[in-house]
Amino acid sequence: MRQLSGSNGRTVSRSQSLFNAVTRFFLALGLVFWTSTLRAQEQSASSISREVKEIFERSARAVVKIRAVDEHGKLAGTGFFIDPTGTLYTAFSVGADADDFTIELDGKEVPARQVMTDRRSGIALLKVDMPTPALPVGKSGGLEVTAPVMTIGFPLDLPKSPSYGMIAGFDRKFLGRYFSTTHLRVNLPTQRGEAGAPLLNFKGEVVGILVSSVENGSACYALPIDAAEKIRTDFVRFGEVRHGWIGINVAEAPSPLEGSRAQFSEIMPGTPAAESGAKPGDILLQVGKTPVHEPEDVIDASFFITAGDPVPITVLRGNEKMTFTVEAGFHPAAQRPPVVASPLSPQALPLGLDRTP
């Protein structure tokens, strides 16, 4: 019995030593892992900081402060050059109902003039008569949730400042009210005076234009640059914006067919679609180049229609796919304020303007 007792004691002692050694090993391993993780996080943060700084230094000269006068007095906002001939984008709230525009470029005040405003999209174009720097235009259509983005603007009439955030969503409506087209919701803080600032990807390309703030500036909405470029292209082609429509109402089908739940519910009389051959009950598959899967897809498809252009419309009728070509007419909303260009609810307001007393 004594021999057995001694043997058990030595076994316990060896087990305890082994346990202690394993514990020390895993503690050391954990410390190494924690240190490596911390170092990786620091390197990642440092890398993002460098990228933001590089984009800011490369792009900042093309972003300018806009000053103007409206019925309430002096105001200031942000704009950015989109071509080397002096054309710049800004928000409708900055460039629409004002006069006596000037921009600050390289420390100088330069006169500018309004060339186009579009309430439905929420943007405006200004022009200066001189060569200018310009930001490259990217593609907003390829963005994904969590994509890193940044902006450059003039918050609170302070010097030109960068901000960093990420894409948080692609919204067609806010608090039950529809935008004129899908907007980018960005987890990026905004301040008064940043209306019209460019939203940049990490290549330094413009992917949106800041038009409204959310929840006291903690986030914002941006019009996708693809939508803004549609407006600018209209103006270049025709000297005016031509929001188009075809005159068909769409509802949700009882079940999806060919991947679409969008069903024609009404062909409005006297509209471009009235004589197209489309019929109530047709399942809508595509408008122009835009595929349709849900009735709400028609919002974006309609936004990119230009009045006067032929628009191919692909539908499913029974088991047969059919394509009709309709010459788009002018959208009724082009002559009156949109359902929503920038949300006007208490929690989502057009980005404020800086005003001088």
Q: How does the overall form come out from the CA principal axes?
A: flat
Rg over CA atoms, rounded to whole Å, is 28 Å
Number of strands: 23
Find the CATH topology of the largest domain: Thrombin, subunit H
Give the CATH class of the largest domain.
Answer: Mainly Beta
How many domain regions?
2
Provide mean pLDDT, rounded. 85
* Fraction in helix: 10-25%
The appropriate CATH architecture of the largest domain is Beta Barrel
Uncertain runs are 1-7, 336-357
Give me the number of helical elements.
4
The assigned structural class equals: alpha+beta
What profile does the largest beta sheet have? 8 strands, antiparallel
Order of helices and strands: HEEEHEEEEEEEEEEHEEEEEHEEEEE
Any overview of this molecule?
The chain has 357 residues and is of the alpha+beta class. The protein has two domains: 47-240 and 342-357, Thrombin, subunit H (Beta Barrel), CATH 2.40.10; 244-330, PDZ domain (Pdz3 Domain). The protein contains four helices and 23 strands. The chain has helices spanning 2-59, 92-95, 225-238, 297-303, and strands spanning 63-70, 73-81, 87-91, 99-105, 108-111, 113-118, 123-127, 148-153, 161-174, 177-187, 198-200, 206-214, 219-224, 244-245, 248-257, 260-267, 283-287, 290-291, 310-317, 320-327, 329-330, 348-350, 354-356. The strands form five sheets. Strands 1, 2, 3, 4, 5, 6, 7 and 23 form an eight-stranded antiparallel beta sheet that branches. Strand 2 (73-81) and strand 3 (87-91) form a beta hairpin. The chain starts with a helix and ends with a strand.
